[in-house]
């Protein structure tokens, strides 16, 4: 495994998730970056866009697609991934890891697999279906809020314990909205501010419900989700609660057991805070029984475990590498 | 009314709410500050503690109580207000406005009045009971989260429309925790961070439930509240939702009518954000019907409408002044 | 004076300085806002752009100019003020207060007065030339960095004590760059970040040098200025130092005397911080003698004393009102 | 080299630099952490103090010193390192890397070596004296501001080009002040704030001056330094300027050549910003000729290149490892 070198291509390399993927792959022991595709930045050095990479890479963006790669990461916008694949005529042998939502769910399915563009995309949440991912050819990488909420609820769904309405609130950092300039991305507006958006109507709810229903036999109840825009750049913290007969000890036993073989999920006994996971591929969970309710706090870095880090984790699984390869990241902590 | 001058004393003037009260009263057209009491800072200029007041006042903190005042604001900690009144032997003619929680609620009452220290304290939420406040002698000033949540739910309670569980999440700025140094007040920890605390067990729930039950005939349902510590200094934003038969138009009609005579509450048609109210005495509400749920977003400045500004509003009512006197504040907006 | 009502018009009312001016004038006891002009927002309520004004005003933006005003504030961009005046054909009786840099300086002048568009514009720094402003018809309102640096150096210039090079560094909040969307205004970039710009080449140096030369007989020495973009929204803090024979006591005496009649400038004995002046029209100064150097720290709110507040201060002087009318603002402090 | 395993001990492991060192050493391919000493936290898991390490390590703090180590990192406060060494009676064979200022400079020396506690400490700035470090037994790790300023000026000193006064301003994040609770560390104070401190009198000036004088034959001129506390947690950005005869091209040639063999220093052609280096061991430099002045902007992460990362870099050199081992860190970038 030490000698294995995977040739990787990146499409949409000038955006936030593309940049984060570059930061990870440049230090990955088993990856060689074959090319970084960008229509807008073609011909320019990668470090002119991702300025922290100055001194780390001499790569240039290109607008040509090289087919001599083992894996292709699609870091383009929602809708654009499907368009790209339809136009690109790639050989089926190239594994695709798509970070958009284009192949994440499909209303009619009971399995976390979606067919599209003549390919079958396995939903890339390793804590849900690591073995299916290992066997897969193509991956639909999960959404950021969807990752944080699913990891909070998966153990309950596996035991058919989601029986009453679930309430979720969550706060996301600004990088979740990408690098586009918009009024809610303006520093003078967002600094020291907070606002909610898409209350009870966030698009990730489809993805979450589908996943939970794959695990749970009885029907998954209503999930209400209030998302907030927070005054920080990185990370997502969610609080989920539902009525439950589990005691504190039973809940800890259930979650501890479920995640015991998953290296990126940890259960915190003490109240955690978001910066414990920022700039890492970790998900941190905290469990509290309050009256009849089980409260699960979950947190991830939206650009790492919520996007590019999880994409690398999926790549590791696709190619039989150690799951943590290239993902032992120093937390920023402050 | 222009000539009326109220002599005001402040006890606990060195803390955050005391400072905010000073900022307001120094510019109030009908108030003369008789003294500012502080045990810890006695003998020092007020501007050494509240440094923004340099150039605005030559007042010194004192550890003596002058009884020649019309109104006394208690800006001391929870528990300390009761202790102070028990020890101070103040004439009953001095009106008291207590910013602590010591006289806010009493399990057995169905009215928003609490008796203690040989006095009767009217709960000082003007949008709940302005007329009672006008007739009152002493005021228990509401809590900050309690203000934001009550203003979101009062019109429903008045119409007996709180029939199913209410879910609330809210984010507060750091000044809500006062000026004490603590790990969660450390800049290096809190900057760019988010965490929840007292999930489903916040102490303001008693106060909220009592108020709503005063208004609503049928029993007020369970209220679940998830509070968050946000990475900002001022303000509280809450999202409350419950199942409701009201349509969007009916909800807007109900809330618009309820608050039409209340100068500090406005209903925003568009999605609001916290900084619209920061550094003002306003409460902003936003209504959305989503499926079967009515979602109410509410926001205030925790130190103004959530504390010292509301105290001044109550003082205005107690003394027959215009409700907005001294409270037409320039928003900071950014 | 209580009865005096000034009819004011605002041109360019949809930007940051226009909004800040509205916040001030709506609460000014002697002003009636006649109209708010905006090409981009004409026909829309003012509170849709300046959202904190919801509940405070029913004004609409207009694209028509009413000539029945006493004073017109120009809150348009640099260059656009001159263009506007050339096109608008306003009667000379309307007083103009221009917040752009179009009439602030003129290379050839030794006086802080600029002629342009058939008008004479007096440079509106009251601490420099309050009497000239009182007699003036039109005002060129100073720049924000220029205000902070000039107030740090004026007393030295008056005594011909600027004899050796002056070093200045200063940090500005994001609102100084206006509401335009740009990469350095993106929250994900600016949060927790710092960068310098226009090092030793900032355009305000012309304005500063001209003012100081008006006061000082001998030639004003070289002024080096390093501006920084800070991770905050409001305010400017500058540190200026130069070799000086003044002792600490002599410096304090000089500055105290110079500013004794100027209500918005205070000298702090202790080390100050920016938030002492945020959301006020104050300038705070701090003096330190270090070896052979006199160090002057100065700070203002860039949108208030650095723009719209100073414009109101100038209006007060133009119309014989009390200098502080409408400018006794509650600091945000946090 | 792949097989080499260095046994490392950490003294003062509960503070910020101790935590940062742990984050680095846990992922270092050639290090085994023998023990983490802390008087205050002895007996508790390391992850209770450094909460981001939950899931990464099962280490406990200890109050015992194990002597079976190859290297000992001292992460205790200024003064405490000397006290520790005097009391500890360590064998001379254990290499010491001291992060305090206790052995950084000595007024009388012309060499960057200090003798104390019966040991000789080589000043650990690899870009100054990499070969001496490789031969050293003990290291005095440089200060954070000192690192940023020295790296900005070293190439000039080497060429005897520091002939006129140098002006420096710099802004530091809050972690530079450690984890102690203090008024200037309070979130409600520091958020959105800026202030200067120790103007023209910062203690790192001794260290800087000594280093530059080691390199330059003629006397190093006066260096004026204005430090600021910034509203961010990590990083230092400094702007230094001095009169220089070098052209832009000559300066770039000089700096490019000087740093060509130093893997952590890069020269940016475009204006850089602090977040390009946050959470990395890099120093980024930018050169601008403005009139007669050469302006050098330099930036580092104060906890990494300014403290624990540089300590690891020094350890790598002491033990003949690759200089970048364990220091290829993913930037946080946002």
Layout of SSEs?
The structure is a homotetramer of 334-residue chains.
Chain A: E1 6-11, H1 16-25, E2 31-37, H2 46-49, E3 61-62, E4 71-74, H3 80-88, E5 95-98, E6 113-116, E7 119-123, H4 126-135, E8 138-140, H5 144-158, E9 166-172, H6 187-190, E10 195-196, H7 204-215, E11 223-229, E12 236-243, H8 248-258, E13 265-267, E14 283-290, E15 293-300, H9 304-318
Parallel strand pairs in A: 1-2, 1-4, 2-3, 4-5, 5-8, 7-8, 9-11, 13-14
Antiparallel strand pairs in A: 6-7, 9-12, 10-11, 12-15, 14-15
Taking all Cα atoms into account, the compactness measure Rg of chain A is 19 Å
Largest sheet of chain A: 8 strands, mixed
Q: Please give the order of strands in the largest beta sheet of chain A.
A: 3-2-1-4-5-8-7-6
> What form of chain A results from the Cα inertia axes?
globular
The stretches of 5 or more residues of chain A where confidence is low (pLDDT under 50) are none
Largest interface: B-C, 42 and 42 residues
CATH C-level of the largest domain in chain A? Alpha Beta
Spell out the CATH superfamily of the largest domain in chain A. Dihydrodipicolinate Reductase, domain 2
| Percent helix of chain A | 25-40%
The structural class of chain A is: alpha/beta
Can you describe what's shown?
Chains A, B, C, D: One of its GO terms (molecular function) is N-acetyl-gamma-glutamyl-phosphate reductase activity. With about 325 residues, chain A is α/β, with parallel strands linked by helices. Chain A has two domains: about 5-140 and about 305-320, Rossmann fold, CATH 3.40.50; about 145-300, Dihydrodipicolinate Reductase, domain 2. Chain A contains nine helices and 15 strands. Chain A has helices spanning about 15-25, 45-50, 80-90, 125-135, 145-160, 185-190, 205-215, 250-260, 305-320; strands spanning about 5-10, 30-35, 60, 70-75, 95-100, 115, 120-125, 140, 165-170, 195, 225-230, 235-245, 265, 285-290, 295-300. In chain A, the strands form two sheets. In chain A, strands 3-2-1-4-5-8-7-6 form an eight-stranded mixed beta sheet, with helices on one face. Chain A has a seven-stranded mixed beta sheet with strand order 10-11-9-12-15-14-13. In chain A, a hairpin with a 2-residue loop joins strand 6 and strand 7. In chain A, helix 1 (about 15-25) packs across helix 9. The longest helix of chain A has 15 residues, at about 145-160. The radius of gyration of chain A is 19 Å and the shape is globular. The first copy, chain A, starts with 5 loop residues before the first strand and ends in a 16-residue tail after the last helix. Chains in contact: A-B, A-C, A-D, B-C, B-D, C-D.
